[in-house]
From TrEMBL:
Keywords: Aminotransferase, Pyridoxal phosphate, Transferase
Protein name, as recorded: Aminotransferase class V-fold PLP-dependent enzyme
Pfam families with a match to the protein in the record: Aminotran_5, FeeM
Organism, scientific name: Psychrobacillus soli
Transferase found in the keyword field: yes
Domain N-acetyltransferase residue range list: 4-168
Length: 520
C-alpha cells in the first residue's frame, strides 16, 4: 500500500537524509560524498516534508519551504520578476528536494507526491511552488505539471531548469489524470447516488404547477409516515433555517422556556434563541455528557417553563440525546418540546408524536442534496404577523407553496425516501454502525460520547494527533476542520455516504497500516 503523510519524527528525517544522499550525492553529483551516507538539507528545520511510503518503508519525498530568500532567488534574483502573473495569486513556496527511491520509481509514486504537494500547498494558502528541476528529468517534471519560467542554471552534470507549479497547471497535467479516488466520511454534504443524480437532469417544473403540488404531497406524506408527526412544513434552505423557523414560533408564544445543551449544536440553538430575544434559562452540560433527567424534571416541576428546546442528535459529539424520555417529562408538566433533529432524522427510526415542533433536512442521513428543510409539528400552525415571512411556517399550511422551491430538489428527496421502504435505509445504517464500532473496539479508540447513533462517531485527536491530516493526504476525508472540532481537537467519521462500505474497507486497511507504522 502506498500512502502519504507529513514527516514529523526523527526516524522519518533520518530516512529522508539517506534518500537525499543516494539521490543528490551518488546519482546526481550535486554534493561531495560524506562517510555518514546522509545528506541533511541546509534548510532542514524550515522545510515541510511530504513523504510517500510503501507500507512501512519510505518510497519518496518532496521538501518545500516558504522562507525567503529561495535558492532560486539567489541564482536569478527575486523570482516574482520572472514568474507569470497567474503564479502570483497567493503565497509562494520553493520545492527544494524531490527524490524517489530506485525501488519505487514508477509513475504512481511521483504522481502521489505531486498530488500531495498540490493539495497540501493549496490548502495552506500557497498559490505556486517553484523548483530547480534537474535537466535529465524534464519530461517527468512536465508530466507533474511543472513548467519552465527561466533559462537553465548550473554547470556540468548538475544543470537545472527553474520551473513553476500552480494548482491550475497541476490540474492540466498528466499526473492529474491519475487522480487518487477520494473517500468521504463527512456528515454532509452527501455524495449522490446515480438515481438521485438523475433528478437534477430532469426538466424543472414550476412550483405553482399541479404536477409539483402532487409530487410535494407525496413527499410530505412519506415524511409524516417516517416521523409520526401530524404536519410537516418544507422550506428551501438549510437545517439552520429550519431551526430559525422553529424558534420563530417560540417567539410568537412569548413565554419562558428551558434550553438544554451538551454540544456545539445545542449551543447554536441557544445563540439563535438569544438573537430572537426569547426569555429562557439554559441548562448546560459538558460536551458528550448525558442530560440529567432528574435535574430536568426538577426544573420543569417548578411550572416556570412553557417550552423546552434541545438537540436530539448532537452532531458535534456523535451523541443521541434522550428525546422520548424528555418528551414524557414535557407531557407530564405540560411543556412544549421543540427538538433539532437535523442529524437524527433519517438515521434511525423514532417518533415525533410527543413534540410540539421538530426539524430535519434533506442533506444529512436521508442522503440527498442539501437545500430542503423540514419543520414538523403536531399542532396546526397559523401565520403570524410579527415574524419574517420566509420563516413563517404558517404560510405553508393548507397545501400552500408560498415561495419558490426547486422541483429537482423535491424529486431527489422523493427518490431518497424510497430507501426507507420497509426500513431498508435504517437497517443499512445500523450495519454500518457495527463496522465502525468493531474498528473502535479493535484499536481501543475512546469515543467522546457513550450514546452514539447510526450517523457519526467522535473521538479526541490526541489518540493520534495527525491521523486526520495524514488520512486526507491518502484520500480519506474525515470530518475535523469545522471550528468547533478544531477548538476541541476532535475527529469524526460518518457512515451516511453512498459508498461507505468500499470506503470503510479501504480506510481500515490504511488505518491498520498507519497504526503498525506508528507502533514501530
Amino acid at each position: 500500500m502506498y500512502w502519504c503523510k507529513i514527516a514529523r519524527t526523527e526516524k522519518e528525517f533520518e530516512a529522508i537524509a539517506k534518500l537525499n544522499y543516494q539521490t543528490f550525492v551518488e546519482e546526481i553529483p550535486q554534493y561531495e560524498p560524506d562517510p555518514s551516507g546522509m545528506r541533511v538539507d541546509p534548510f532542514h528545520h524550515e522545510n515541510v516534508y511530504v513523504i510517500v511510503l510503501k507500507d512501512q518503508e519510505l518510497a519518496g519525498m518532496v521538501a518545500f519551504r516558504a522562507i525567503r530568500p529561495f535558492s532560486l532567488d539567489l541564482k536569478l534574483g527575486p523570482v516574482e520578476n520572472l514568474l507569470p502573473k497567474d503564479a502570483l495569486q497567493g503565497l509562494l513556496c520553493e520545492v527544494r528536494l524531490m527524490a524517489v527511491d530506485k525501488a519505487h520509481r514508477n509513475g504512481r509514486v511521483f504522481y502521489y507526491l505531486a498530488r500531495a504537494l498540490s493539495d497540501y500547498a493549496y490548502e495552506n494558502g500557497y498559490g505556486a511552488a517553484v523548483i530547480s528541476g534537474t535537466i535529465r528529468e524534464q519530461k517527468l517534471y512536465n508530466q507533474l505539471g511543472f513548467e519552465p519560467f527561466a533559462e537553465t542554471v548550473g554547470t556540468g552534470d548538475a544543470l537545472f531548469v527553474p520551473m513553476v507549479l500552480t494548482r491550475e497547471r497541476f490540474d492540466r497535467s498528466v499526473a492529474a489524470r491519475f487522480k487518487q479516488k477520494r473517500y468521504s466520511f463527512y456528515p454532509g454534504p452527501v455524495q449522490q447516488s446515480k438515481q438521485i443524480q438523475q433528478a437534477f437532469l430532469e426538466k424543472p417544473i414550476s412550483h405553482r404547477s399541479h404536477e409539483f403540488k402532487v409530487m410535494l404531497e407525496r413527499v410530505k406524506n412519506r415524511l409524516l409516515t417516517m416521523s409520526e408527526a401530524t404536519h410537516v412544513h418544507l422550506l428551501a434552505g438549510s437545517g439552520t433555517l429550519a431551526n430559525e423557523a422553529m424558534i420563530a414560533q417560540l417567539h410568537v408564544l412569548g413565554e419562558k422556556g428551558l434550553i438544554l445543551t451538551n454540544g456545539a449544536f445545542g449551543e447554536r440553538l441557544e445563540k439563535q434563541a438569544a438573537r430572537w430575544g426569547l426569555s429562557y434559562k439554559s441548562q448546560a452540560y459538558e460536551w458528550g455528557t448525558s442530560f440529567d433527567m432528574a435535574a430536568i424534571e426538577k426544573q420543569l416541576a417548578t411550572g416556570e417553563y412553557s417550552w423546552l428546546l434541545m438537540t436530539h442528535g448532537e452532531t458535534s459529539t456523535g451523541m443521541l440525546n434522550k428525546l422520548e424520555e424528555i418528551a414524557k417529562l414535557c407531557k407530564k408538566y405540560n411543556v412544549l418540546l421543540c427538538a433539532d433533529c437535523v442529524s437524527s432524522f433519517g438515521a434511525l427510526p423514532f417518533s415525533m408524536d410527543g413534540v410540539y415542533l421538530a426539524t430535519g433536512v434533506s442533506g444529512k442521513a436521508i442522503g440527498t442534496m442539501s437545500g430542503l428543510a423540514f419543520v414538523f409539528s403536531n399542532s396546526e400552525i397559523v401565520t403570524g404577523d410579527n415574524i419574517p415571512a420566509y420563516l413563517d411556517i404558517g404560510l405553508t399550511a393548507s397545501h400552500m407553496i408560498p415561495f419558490t422551491m426547486s422541483s429537482q430538489l423535491v424529486q431527489s428527496l422523493e427518490y431518497a425516501l424510497k430507501a426507507y421502504e420497509k426500513g431498508a435505509r435504517y437497517t443499512l445504517l445500523r450495519e454500518r454502525m457495527k463496522f465502525i464500532e468493531a474498528e473502535v473496539e479493535k484499536h481501543q479508540i475512546p469515543l467522546l460520547a457513550d450514546d452514539p447513533y447510526p450517523m457519526i462517531f467522535t473521538w479526541h485527536e490526541k489518540t493520534f494527533p495527525y491521523l486526520a491530516e495524514d488520512a486526507r493526504m491518502s484520500g480519506f476525508d474525515l470530518h475535523y476542520k469545522s471550528d468547533y472540532l478544531v477548538e476541541r481537537g476532535l475527529i469524526q467519521v460518518s457512515c451516511i455516504q453512498p459508498d461507505f462500505e468500499d470506503a470503510w474497507s479501504k480506510f481500515t486497511d490504511w488505518m491498520d497500516n498507519y497504526w503498525a507504522y506508528h507502533a514501530e
